[in-house]
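User: Hey, my collaborator sent me this sequence without any context and asked if I could get a structure. I don't really work with proteins. Can you help?
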Amino acid sequence: MTNTAHPLDLLLQPAGSARLRTLAIAVIPLLLVSAALVVLAAWAMPEGYSWLVLSISESAAQAQQHGWIARLSFLCFGSAVLLLSLAMRGRWPRLTYWCHLVFAASMFGSAAFSHSPWQPGAPNDPVEDFLHSVFATGMGFAFCTGVVARFIQRGPGAVIGRSVDILALLVATALPLLLASSFGVGGLVQRVMFGVAYLWYGREALIGLAEPTGTIATLEG
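Assistant: No problem. I've predicted the 3D structure and written it out in structure-token form, which is a compact way to encode the shape of the chain:
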């Protein structure tokens, strides 16, 4: 006699682990939306805001009209990195996995706590500004550490992969020094940093989307 499954069995069964490709396929659209929102946020700022001088965080500053646009960009970026980290858990070094989870959490924190206003006379909460700085700093350290671990894992044969890693590390470490000492291009420097980070994560997502054949070896190399 054939056992008939209960009609609710399908709904009550565990969903199972998410497939790598299912998670990775959402990463690139989220990165693209985040990048578009960075551009839109600068465009939506009132007179006096310069994207060459002022940072992305300042387009999401406290009490800033349309500041939600940049904060939404942070949320999209953090969500992309969170999904990518889960998708690449079986391929990334453990240190890379955990560091990019920290990066995602820090991006969410940067969205939750805003930078001090760039407009004179606007209300300012120094505690919120401090927390934003803490999360932004944590983001930088987590990104660099995660990329270094990934660089080591690739091995000497992965020329393209290691070149992208080196570019990301140079931009993430050298440009902040330029950002601190530059006059008039701080906003541009930060946007270049974001652009390279989008590139690094986008490439990792493509590796996650590749079939487990020679395609991955090509992307890694």
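In plain terms: The CA atoms of residues 29 and 80 lie 8 Å apart. You can pass these tokens on to your collaborator as they are.
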